[in-house]
Specification:
Layout: H1 3-35, H2 42-123
């Protein structure tokens, strides 16, 4: 599943959850108003508690949505940084190879210079 499809599913889930919370709250509120007409009704108190919990569920769903969006942004940034680090690692490897190759040539040149100096000293 591509990231676009995952985002679409996430958006749909978010909308469905929000709609469910709103519908549930509306239903409970309608029932509560009918029952609340009678004073000191324990059922009314229970329904009121359900309404409060439904509101908390809706708030929780909003927090989850917010955290999900923030996490998605962080993951995207992290992914971009990983790509940059891979490129940097390749450059470091190439530089390491260049330094090793240069060291090898320098050692060969140093050996040649030492040999030439010795030959020059023996000819004098």
């Amino acid at each position: 599943m591509s990231s676009t499809e995952q985002q679409f599913d996430s958006d749909r889930f978010e909308k469905d959850l929000k709609a469910l919370c709103v519908n549930f709250a509306n239903c409970l509120e309608a029932v509560y108003f009918e029952i609340a007409k009678e004073a000191d009704n324990p059922l009314a108190a229970s329904l009121h508690q359900c309404l409060v919990l439904t509101d908390e569920l809706h708030t929780l769903a909003e927090l989850i949505r917010s955290d999900t969006n923030a996490s998605t942004d962080v993951i995207a940034t992290f992914s971009d940084r990983c790509t940059e680090i891979e490129t940097l690692f390749k450059r470091i490897d190439a530089l390491q190879e260049f330094v090793a190759n240069t060291q090898e040539h320098f050692n060969a040149l140093e050996a040649t210079v030492s040999k030439a100096e010795k030959e020059l000293l023996h000819k004098k």
